[in-house]
Amino acid sequence: DDGAEGAERSQSVNLDHSWVMNPTTILDLRAGFVRFRDERIPASLGTDLTQFGFPAAYNNAVQWPVVPNIHVGGIADINASTGSTIYGIQNNYSFAGALTLVRGSHNMKIGAIYRVLQLNRTQSNSPSGDFSFNAGFTQSDPLTASLTSGVPLASFLLGYASGGSTSIVARLALQSKYGAWYFQDDWRVTPKRSEE
């Protein structure tokens, strides 16, 4: 990686209020928020790809301009995974309430919860492309495979890639809502026996 800076950060806040309305009635209210941020920003983000000979149209079309991944046959990869980029934020909101009522031999609880879960994320491992160079274009006959002629590094220096790809990844924005409620009655049938 080219010094990509990673940042993972969690933030949360929770509020809880219990109110004893009278000796037999208690109200509990809660609210919470959690945010998780996950980012990996390559040091080469913002690189002008035209300085490497790419056309301006290509430079303007890539999702995030970073130094591309280069694979030259017989040589260790140049900047492999250089542009691995992540932008992600997850938000979770929750709201809950519970009411406890003691009435004679009954201890009743009724409550509800509502949650909103949000996920916003995008990730690409080669947003400015992934290019390979072999001996094909520098061998004596480019149309016939040869083990004795051609140099992959020469193909790279001439700018003749044997293959390559780039991709535009979708930016996810997902949301899920969840709600539930409950009722519970603890009933003391006799002083020694209780039923739920």
Descriptors:
6-stranded antiparallel sheet, 3-stranded mixed sheet, mainly beta, 196 residues
Quick structural summary:
The protein is mainly beta and 196 residues long. It is built from two helices and nine strands.
How would you describe this protein?
With 196 residues, the protein is mostly beta strands. It contains two helices and nine strands, in the order E-E-H-E-E-E-E-H-E-E-E. It has helices at 56-61, 152-158; strands at residues 5-22, 25-41, 69-72, 85-103, 106-124, 130-133, 163-165, 172-190, 193-195. A six-stranded antiparallel beta sheet has the order 1-2-4-5-8-9, with no helix packed on it. Strands 3-6-7 form a three-stranded mixed beta sheet. Strand 1 (5-22) and strand 2 (25-41) form a beta hairpin. The longest helix has 7 residues, at 152-158. The protein is rod-shaped and about 100 Å long. The model has no long low-confidence stretch (mean pLDDT 88).
